[in-house]
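Protein Record: Sequence and Backbone Structure Tokens
======================================================
Tokens: labelled as protein backbone structure tokens, with as many entries as the chain has residues.
Task: work out the structure tokens from the sequence, keeping to the layout shown below.
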Amino acid sequence: MRTIGLKTRSASAPLRFAVRLLGLLLSIAALLSVTSVEANCGRINPPWSDKPLTVNFGAEIVLDENVAVGTPIATAVIPGSQLYAIKGGWVATCNNQDDAIKYWWLEQHYSQSSGYFPVPGISVDSADGRVYIMQDSGSRNPYGGGGSGSVGYTTELLVNGNAHAFSWVSASPNKNLPPIGEEIHGIPCRDALLGTGAAEGYPPLIEINCPIGDYAVNWRQLPPFQIKVTLYRMAGSPGTSGVQLQNNNNAGFSLFSLLNSQGTPSGANHELFNLVRLQLAQGTRVRINPCHGINNVSVSLGEVGSHRFTTLGQPATGVADTPVHVTAWCHTDGDIKWAVLGKAAAYDPGGNQGILALDNEEESASGVGIQLIHTGSLAPLPITPEGSAFDAYRWIDTNLHAQGGNILMLDFLARYVKTGTVTPGTANGHATLVLSPK
């Protein structure tokens, strides 16, 4: 049997600190119902002014100080089908069969950089390569606007295999108005009210004035789409105490709308279905981790005869536990909690007994796992499944306290345990340790 590798990250590959974000809210914004010579459609209201949709990213983002500017730190992909839940997805009524919705209107809404424009000189992996600055509770924004300038964002519409950027432009006709594709015409109200005919399979339109002879528009008529929001590390600093992300002016940071004509002037909102503002559900804290990992750690558990494994769930008899020592360098003071991320053994699927599965290798042993336990109490260290959301991390508190400019030591024990019928072979495993301020 060979070694296990207990992986941390060094200065070039630091410990992975909690990078999950909570909480986007799609809040339904006001729509102006306008009549023009071109078309005559208006929003259905309610519900489009008071029925928010919520996306949950977690309550906090903890960044390593070495994370480069422009690095994604959180992403959310919001399915357009969530809008179906509001009033059955019925969004507008039109007077005429020829009235049509033709364009998306995709706008970043009041970035916290100078002039609300995207940050110059920084390109990110988005539809147009531009990044904007999120409002937060900090100060000293190096990009000339409000907040700390430590978090950027992009918003994209994903539809028909393409990504379209939400962009900040100051005046029509320079709005970002990609065509929907096939024009969307309303469904006759007589069908919409009953869920029959052209509205077959749609929820009936109820509690809405839709006269016979008029038409109604449903979100399901649009091509399937998603809205992708990505957050990025920027040049400003949130500090180790952190900043709270906030909604920008007019209580949002992106605006998602539908439009009848590319020539519509933005100031008047003629024939604009001004529907959804993307909003943060709550102030989400972003802060710098006071510590980062120094190196990866490999620990040898030695060779153990299969005859020593006698009891299911127990270690090999007569074999001592192996100490594991992990070090991190801390640049500020603070109390630290930690978690173990890995793949739990099938014998312990919930990870409660702290048993890691063996790596899938040629000539691998079977019937054993690697158990991680506290030094002293010998209590198992709970395993957090790899890929878990930050809110689901199973944090461990061993009263660690970081001191600025000093090394932080983290110790525990590892050992083989029996999880089934033991067969000889290689018995390697791995785990990732995550440190985070308490």
Q: What stands out?
A: The first strand starts at residue 3 and ends at 7.
